[in-house]
User: Which sequence fits this backbone?
């Protein structure tokens, strides 16, 4: 077996791996990037970009459907050509993947190796049982993969994940979506608006990443008005048939129902790709799921010469987070042993449903846990149902909660469902990262008439509650950290 020595080895060539590679190069040219799967990031191939292409097509169809509300009647029947829809999705998807492949092609061959790596010990990797690599520092950036309940294994090709949908040549007539999280909600609603009959089931009662109970209830009721959604579904049987999948379930009224669908879409979560890396051969400290324990500010594991970034660390599976983490990991691998914290931005998450969902900061649940002892968390609210610009555009479904700290009057984050949530979330994330107070945020300009005026209404509500609060709670201020 051949043997080589490298200063820095990066396992994985997704968003985190590429960012780590670029950062490590600032310190040394002795960097090797190993990839066993296809090049092209999860986002470009099967994630955020192709899903947004499908959503864009769904939004176009929905606009036609909503046009009569404005007195505009486009025709007697809207025709959705599934083949044309999927053709554009795949063409544009391939274009985005092409940009990533082009960047990979520009990486010198001496820095790239195809194959699957696993640890032999803390410093040694074996690639495809053919090559041993001794590495001074290692970055794990192996991404994640979809997982689903074992009862779905017998469905064969009738079981699909988001990866599979973007290979369809045409749209099916019906799909059962299991998991109303980010992926399930986005794809399920898009398919529904493109004429696919959708049944959506959850288990925990949650919709998307929302933790605020009032926002959660509003979201569930809103989506359930559009398509069948049971976030606490009771599934009795899922069985493959000659023509599809038969699902037997108890509906929201307690009645037993039986439906046959073309496909089952499993949107039931993802798993970090660390279970086949031979981590048991290392001294890495791991959590209960097998993921290495790491410092979120430096990406450093124990032992210290190993770093982990992106979906592989099972922390925040978002592209911008993977890019930031990869840069931090690569930078610290390059400067090791002089490791230092990198820039961790204010948390922000968006679900591209309609209405959109957004979370800024740690979210309601974590804030409640953090402030459970001092009771100095205040909540401001606005409904978009009567908000001016939202009503003008017939996009007036939504609820926003903003959170602030009594005593310091610092802004702590927000959860919302509503129009323009992707844009509102950015404004609020910038305010959070700059550690602004609610009065400072209210001093910012708000144009009229815009949807963002709803943010001002919520902030005014929060500010009034902060002014009325018992300021003896000022001693429990926790606003030194963004997240």
Assistant:
């Amino acid at each position: 077996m051949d043997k080589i020595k490298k200063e820095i080895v990066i396992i994985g060539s997704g968003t985190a791996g590429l960012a780590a590679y670029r950062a490590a190069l600032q310190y040394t040219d002795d960097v090797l990037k190993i990839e066993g799967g296809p090049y092209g990031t999860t986002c470009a191939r099967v994630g955020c970009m192709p899903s947004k292409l499908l959503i864009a097509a769904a939004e176009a169809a929905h606009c036609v459907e909503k046009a009569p509300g404005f007195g505009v009647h486009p025709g007697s029947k809207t025709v959705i050509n599934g083949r044309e829809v999927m053709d554009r999705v795949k063409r544009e998807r391939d274009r985005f993947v092409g940009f990533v492949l082009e960047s990979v092609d520009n990486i010198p061959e001496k820095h790239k190796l195809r194959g699957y790596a696993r640890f032999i010990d803390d410093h040694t990797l074996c690639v495809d049982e053919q090559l041993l690599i001794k590495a001074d520092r290692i970055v794990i950036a192996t991404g994640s993969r979809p997982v689903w309940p074992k009862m779905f294994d017998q469905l064969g090709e009738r079981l699909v994940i988001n990866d599979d949908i973007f290979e369809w040549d045409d749209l099916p007539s019906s799909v059962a979506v299991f998991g109303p999280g980010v992926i399930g909600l986005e794809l399920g609603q898009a398919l529904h608006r493109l004429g696919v009959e959708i049944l959506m089931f959850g288990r925990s009662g949650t919709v998307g990443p929302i933790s605020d109970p009032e926002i959660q209830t509003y979201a569930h009721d809103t989506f359930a008005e559009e398509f069948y959604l049971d976030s606490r579904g009771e599934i009795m049987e899922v069985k493959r048939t000659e023509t599809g999948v038969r699902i037997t379930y108890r509906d929201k009224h307690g009645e037993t129902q039986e439906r046959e669908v073309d496909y089952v879409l499993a949107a039931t979560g993802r798993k970090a790709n660390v279970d086949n890396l031979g981590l048991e051969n290392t001294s890495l400290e791991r959590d209960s799921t097998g993921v290495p324990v790491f410092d979120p500010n430096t990406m450093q594991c124990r032992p210290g010469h190993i770093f982990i970034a992106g979906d592989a660390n099972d922390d925040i599976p978002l592209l911008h987070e993977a890019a930031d983490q990869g840069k931090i990991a690569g930078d610290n691998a390059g400067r090791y042993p002089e490791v230092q914290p990198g820039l961790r931005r204010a948390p922000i998450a968006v679900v591209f449903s309609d209405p959109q969902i957004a979370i800024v900061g740690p979210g309601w649940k974590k804030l409640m846990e953090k402030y459970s002892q001092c009771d100095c968390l205040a909540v401001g609210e606005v409904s978009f149902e009567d908000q001016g610009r939202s009503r003008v555009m017939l996009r007036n479904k939504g609820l926003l909660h903003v959170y602030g700290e009594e005593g310091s009057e610092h802004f702590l984050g927000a959860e919302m469902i509503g129009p323009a949530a992707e844009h509102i979330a950015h404004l609020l994330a910038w305010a959070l990262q700059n550690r602004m107070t609610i009065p400072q945020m209210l001093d910012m300009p708000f144009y009229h008439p815009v949807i963002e005026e709803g943010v001002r209404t919520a902030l005014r509500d929060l500010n009034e509650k902060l002014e009325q609060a018992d300021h003896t709670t000022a001693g429990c201020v926790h606003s030194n950290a963004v997240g």
Summary: The radius of gyration is 24 Å. The chain has a mean pLDDT of 94. The domain at 2-37+115-145+271-335 is CATH 3.50.50.60 (FAD/NAD(P)-binding domain). The chain has 13 helices and 22 strands.
